[in-house]
Amino acid sequence: MSLRAAEFFTELCLPFTDSTVVGNTYYAAPVPGGPLRLRISFTGTVYADTFGGLRAAVIHADRGEIDAVALSFVDHGTFHRRDEARNTSRNSSKYGTFDKYHRPGQPPWEGAVTTGLRDAIEQYTRVWFPHTWEVSSLVRAADRSARKTVVPSPVQASGRRR
Fold first, then answer.
1. What are the distances in angstroms from CA 59 to CA 5, 39, 75, 115, 152?
2. Contact indicator for 21, 9 with CB cutoff of 8 Å
């Protein structure tokens, strides 16, 4: 089953330039040349081929995994709107999850809102890679400013009040 993981992680908009997706797992070297790596993978549920969140881990080149955190889709509102629109009960095994069954041409995680997950990953990785997010925030702010079209107000255009 293809989770189209590369598309999912692209949608998360993580700031790590030295990164790749292998299979269904995202790998990054947030500090180039440093010993720490970030690994993010999908977590399963008790139901076959059903995924309920992500697991982010910090890996040391020599010591292996040194820290990890589980980020559930339910806790981060990833599928809240989709499930509300479908009237999926919180008690249902499908609430806040996705599985291998999906509409043709759509990713299995169709309807995901990744903002909450991205914020949680940002919060977690700030502890281990603080400078990465500072640079990323500046780049994102500059990008947002560059995309805005500035229309001068009548006061600015004439240089005097009307």
1. 20, 7, 24, 24, 50
2. yes
CA-closest candidate to residue 39, choices 26, 51, 53: 26
- Domain borders along the chain are 5-158
Over residues 31-68, the pLDDT tens digits come to 988 999 999 999 999 988 889 999 999 999 999 999 99
Could you give the CA distance from residue 90 to residue 79 in angstroms, rounded to a whole number? 11
Are 56 and 63 a contacting pair, CB within 8 Å? no
> Rounded to whole angstroms, how far apart are CA atoms 150 and 7?
33
pTM: 0.78
Residue 69 carries which side chain, given as an amino acid letter?
A: V
